[in-house]
Specification:
The protein is an alpha+beta fold and about 260 residues long. It folds into 2 domains: about 130 residues, no CATH class; about 120 residues, Immunoglobulin-like (Sandwich), CATH 2.60.40. The chain has 5 helices and 9 strands; from the N terminus they run αααααβββββββββ. A hairpin with a 3-residue loop joins strand 7 and strand 8. Helix 1 runs antiparallel to helix 5 and helix 4 runs antiparallel to helix 5.
Length: about 260
C-alpha cells in the first residue's frame, strides 16, 4: 500500500460522495416539479391529492412527501414503485424512476468506495505499525535489546521493577538509561509518605535515571529499578511503560505495567 494508493481511495470516496449528493438533489428537484404538476392537476380536476394518490394505488402521504414542509418533515427518497406510479400518471415527464435508479447506483458506488477506503486505511495503518516495529527491533550495529518482561514487586514503602532484558543481536548492547513514562494515573484518598532512598524518582509523566548494564550477544539478564515518589504522587495508581535507551540512540520499550504508591 503506497501513499498514492491511499490518496486514490480517498479521492474515489470523495467523488462517490459528490455523485450521491448530486443524484439526491436531482431526484428531489424532479419530485418538487412533479408535486407542482400534481397540485395543478388536482385543482383542474377538482380532486384532492389523496384522491389522486388513490387512483395511482398509493397512500395519500406519498405525494406530499415529494415536497415536504421543512418544519415538519425531512425529505428522503421514496421507493421505485411510488415513483413509477407517479411517472405513469404524469406521462414520465419527470423521469423519477430513472433518477431514483441513478441514486441507487451512486449509493452502491459510495458503499464500495467506503469499504475500499476503510481497507486502504487499515492496510496503511498496519504497514505503518510493521515499519515502526521493524525499525525498533531490527538490529542496528549488531545489537538489539528486547524487554521480555517487567515484574512489579511492592514492598512496605517502595515499588521495585524487576526488568528482564535480552540481547537478540550479535554484538554487545550497552544499556545507559531507563525511562519510565506515566500514561495514566488514578488518585486514591489515602496518602502515605515513603522515605527518599530510591533509584528512580517519580515526579511527573517523564521520569528517568542513569543505568550501566551490559548484555553480551544472546545473553538474558535482569536488573531492579526502585521507585520513589514525590509528595504529590503519593496515593496514586499508575499505568506506565518502561523504555531502555541503549547503544547511544536505540530504544527498547516494555508492555504496559501497573503499580501504585499507596503505602501503609
Amino acid at each position: 500500500m503506497t501513499e498514492r494508493d491511499l490518496a486514490g481511495a480517498r479521492a474515489a470516496h470523495e467523488g462517490a460522495e459528490r455523485r450521491v449528493r448530486q443524484a439526491r438533489a436531482d431526484l428531489r428537484q424532479a419530485g418538487i416539479k412533479a408535486k407542482i404538476a400534481l397540485d395543478e392537476s388536482s385543482r383542474e380536476r377538482g380532486l384532492t391529492l389523496e384522491r389522486i394518490a388513490q387512483r395511482m394505488g398509493l397512500q395519500g402521504p406519498a405525494l406530499s412527501r415529494l415536497n415536504p414542509q421543512k418544519e415538519t418533515t425531512q425529505w428522503k427518497p421514496q421507493g421505485v414503485d411510488a415513483y413509477r406510479a407517479i411517472d405513469e400518471y404524469t406521462g414520465s415527464r419527470f423521469q423519477l424512476v430513472l433518477l431514483r435508479r441513478a441514486l441507487d447506483v451512486a449509493m452502491k458506488e459510495l458503499k464500495d468506495a467506503t469499504d475500499a477506503l476503510a481497507l486502504a486505511e487499515a492496510r496503511a495503518d498496519r504497514e505503518g505499525s510493521e515499519a515502526t516495529l521493524e525499525a525498533r527491533h531490527v538490529p542496528q550495529n549488531g545489537a538489539d535489546v528486547v524487554v521480555d518482561d517487567v515484574l512489579v514487586d511492592r514492598m512496605y514503602d517502595r515499588v521495585v521493577l524487576d526488568v528482564r532484558v535480552r540481547n537478540a543481536g550479535t554484538q554487545v548492547a550497552n544499556i545507559t538509561r531507563a525511562v519510565l513514562r506515566i500514561t495514566k494515573r488514578r488518585r486514591f484518598l489515602a496518602a502515605y509518605a515513603p522515605s527518599a532512598r530510591y533509584d528512580l524518582w517519580i515526579d511527573g509523566d517523564h521520569n528517568e535515571c542513569a543505568v550501566a548494564h551490559h548484555l553480551a550477544p544472546a545473553e538474558v539478564d535482569g536488573f531492579l529499578l526502585t521507585l520513589g515518589f514525590a509528595e504529590r504522587e503519593i496515593g496514586t495508581s499508575f499505568t506506565a511503560e518502561l523504555s531502555l535507551l541503549f547503544n547511544r540512540d536505540r530504544t527498547a520499550t516494555s508492555q504496559t505495567i501497573e503499580f501504585d504508591s499507596c503505602f501503609e
